[in-house]
Amino acid sequence: MELYNRYSRKELIQKLMDEPFERTTISFYRYVRLADPQDFRNLLFLDWSSQNCFGRIYVAREGINAQMSVPTHHLQSFLDKLQQYVELKDMPIKFAVEDNGKSFYKLTIKVRPKIVADGLDDQAFDTTDVGRHLTAAEFHRLVDQPDVLVVDMRNHYESEIGHFKGAICPQADTFREEIEMVADQLSDVKDRKILLYCTGGVRCEKASSYLRHHGFKDVNQLHGGIIEYARQIKQLKLESKFIGKNFVFDERLGESINGEVIAHCHQCGNACDTHVNCANNLCHLLFIQCSECARRYEGCCGDECRDALHVSAEDRQLLVQTFQRKFGNRKAFRKGINQKLSFIKPEHE
Ligand SMILES: [Zn+2]
Ligand SMILES: [Zn+2]
């Protein structure tokens, strides 16, 4: 048994497509003290790869944050086995809303300083003093009341394709920027009731304690995030107050919550909420592109990148430098989604 993957991306995707069984996409996180994250990581990797699980998992001294796909016929035994880790016992598991099981094509478990790259100095505030957790139904009741402030704690490219009606959606590129913008812009209304939400709830744990530390009196957060909200609302047969798509950090890039398309193609402006990465690997920009523009630009973010697909090998060497000067290494930053979208088509911004 090996501790790391050894196939190419192409081979792995092909293997995934050829699988004769279904997969279930799940996610979970927990803030829990792990004495030896590397050791724990290796333990999980051996266990989960033997069960043929895929996913992206971060392990840190402060806990675990996992997005995974589990072969559906192994799901029950996977969940049972999870119970045997003291650190992971009784952890709430969230199931994906729109799930074709093709969310991941390999298992990656990384040891990181933190389970969410939030850029915050945790020593500066009490991270255990978090806001009140609201169930989907509680959140649903409060979300459109006039005295309540609803704040989307995700980045701009996430809230662009879907958000709660009337929510404040800061134009932030990173969580750190987001959290500071929110604390600053709401500094005059620290007594108001604030409702925070994010994808699966993990970012709100940090955000709520940060806001409480900065004197906000009534901080509440959606427990389990949009994923759990969507699931419970469906079960309760309530109309979703979240409109559009929930951005997810896997191969699917998004799952539709109420079927509405609220975003626009960054190239032609037509209604569209499909995120793609620019087909020019030197660029790799994450942006919204309709199928018509995908054809026209061959999956690229503009003429420059499309032309780059067709240059000779020598010219490509020159282009590598040009693009690196212009964009830096986008791939190093989680598919480049931290980059601003503003240079694509300024007229649509
Ligand atoms: Zn378009
Ligand atoms: Zn591009």
From TrEMBL:
Domain Rhodanese: from-to ranges: 144-238
A GO MF term: oxidoreductase activity, acting on paired donors, with incorporation or reduction of molecular oxygen
Domain of life from the UniProt record: Bacteria
KW Nucleus (keyword) present: no
EC numbers for this chain: 1.14.-.-
SMART domains: RHOD
Gene Ontology biological process terms, A to Z: tRNA modification
Reaction catalyzed: uridine(34) in tRNA + AH2 + O2 = 5-hydroxyuridine(34) in tRNA + A + H2O
Keywords, alphabetical: Oxidoreductase, tRNA processing
The protein's enzyme class: oxidoreductase
HAMAP family, per database record: TrhO
Family of the protein in this entry: Belongs to the TrhO family.
NCBIfam families named among the record's database cross-references: PRK00142.1-1 (NF001133), PRK00142.1-3 (NF001135)
Reported function: Catalyzes oxygen-dependent 5-hydroxyuridine (ho5U) modification at position 34 in tRNAs, the first step in 5-carboxymethoxyuridine (cmo5U) biosynthesis. May be part of an alternate pathway, which is able to bypass cmo5U biogenesis in a subset of tRNAs under aerobic conditions.
Protein name: tRNA uridine(34) hydroxylase
Native source organism of the sequence: Gaoshiqia sediminis
